[in-house]
C-alpha cells in the first residue's frame, strides 16, 4: 500500500474518534509477569496455574522465558563436579557461578536485557519489520494477546529494568513455600542435606556485588503467594482473583489481611529511623483493625516523636544511630581490655597496632553487629501493642499482628504475652532469634494451633493496594453492573505499542556494546 492510501485509511479510521480514543487504539494487550521465588519453592505449580487460566479464560498465548537459559547460552566454563558433590549440586552451583560471572562481565540486569531482546525480536519478526527500520514502520505493529512470564527473577536490577520498560503492565508474583517443604523438594532432586543448606543460602543472598539477591527482590512483589501442602487447593482461587484484578474483569475488594498489611505499610512511613522503616498493625480475631505502630523514639508524656513536635529528639535530628554508636563503643571497650591486659603484654612485643586491627576486624564481623538492644526507638510491634492495649484492651487476645518486617526476638516475647495468635510479615530479618529463643511458644509451622504462628504474608502487596482497589472504571452501564468478555478484555494497565519497542530497544543497548549479538 502506498503512503497516500495508507494515510487515507488511517484518516477514515480516525473519523468521529476523540484524541483519547486514538491513543487507546495504540495500546497493546500484551501482559508481562515476573516470578521471584526462593529455591525449592513450588513456583512451577503457580506458573502452570497462571498459564492455564490465561489460556482458557482470557484466550492468551503464554510464553515462559526461563532466564537461566541465557546463563547456559553464555557460560564460559563447563560443569566440573568436585569430590563428594552430587551432580545435581554441581549443576546448580555452576549455574549460580556462571550467572555471577555474566553479571560481572556485562551488568546486573543482563538476563532481563536478553529476555527483553527476545520479546522485541519476536514482535518485529511477526510484523515483518527489520530492527533498523523499527522507527519507520512502528505503526505496522499489531497488538498481540500474549503474556510473557519471566522465570525467574533473582536480582533486583533485573526487576527494576523490567518495571522501567513495561511499567504498570508488569506484575511480579513473589512465591514462597515453607523451608521444610523447600528442602524436601530439593532432596527429591538428589541433593544431600548439607548441599541443600549451601544452595538455599547462595540462592537467597550472595555476599557480592554481582550475586543473586532473592531476599531483596522478593519483597518488591505485587502479589505474594504462599504455597504449601496445606493450602495448595486454594491456589486456583488465588490466581483467579489476582487475574481479575489485573484485567479489572470483576469487582474485587480487599481481604481483611490485605487491609491490615496496607495499614502496617502506611504506618511505616511515619518512622524516621536511620536503619529501616517498619510498620505494624493489629486486628482482633474477626479481622477488625485495633491499632497501628511504627518504629521511632518515644517522647515524654507518651507516644512517639512526630514531625509537628518542636522538641524533636529523633535520630534524624541528632544525626547518628545510637545502636551503631553503642556497638562501636562496645567493640572499642573489648579491644582496649585485650590490648592493655597485663597477661598479654609479653606476647604482643610492640605489635599493639597490628593485633588491635586484627581483633577489631574479627569483632566487627562477629555477632556483635547483630545486637539491637541499644536502639532508642520503640519497635513498630511494641508501639502497636501498647497503643492497642490502651485503646482496645482484651480485644487483642487471639488477634493477628501484621508487620512489614519479621519481628525481632525482643518483640517476640511481648507478642506472645499479649495473646496474639498469628503474625504475618513480608521482609525477612536475619538478626531475629525469636524461634531460637521462644520455640516453646512461637513457630513457623502454619499447621500448629498450640503456638503463635509466624507466616509470610499472602495477598496483594501494599505497594499495589490503591491501584487495584481504588477505582473500578466503567463498571456501571444503564444502572446495571457491566459485564465483560474475558476473551477480549484488555489488562487494566496497558502500554502503547508505539512506545514499547522504543523502550525495549533502549534497554538492550549494553548487549550490543558488549558483543552479545
Classify the secondary structure makeup into a structural class.
alpha/beta
Widest sheet, order of strands: 3-4-2-5-6-13
CATH topology of the largest domain: Rossmann fold
What number is the mean pLDDT? 87
Give the CATH H-level superfamily of the largest domain.
P-loop containing nucleotide triphosphate hydrolases
- Under the CATH scheme, the architecture of the largest domain is 3-Layer(aba) Sandwich
Helix content: 40-55%
Fraction of residues in β-strands: 5-15%
Instruction: List the total number of helices.
Output: 22
Which stretches are low in confidence, meaning pLDDT under 50 for 5 or more residues running? none
Distance between the termini: 33 Å
Q: Kindly state the number of beta strands.
A: 16
Tally of individual domains: 3
GO molecular function, one term: zinc ion binding
Keywords: Hydrolase, Metal-binding, Zinc
Pfam families: dCMP_cyt_deam_1 (PF00383)
Protein name: Deoxycytidylate deaminase
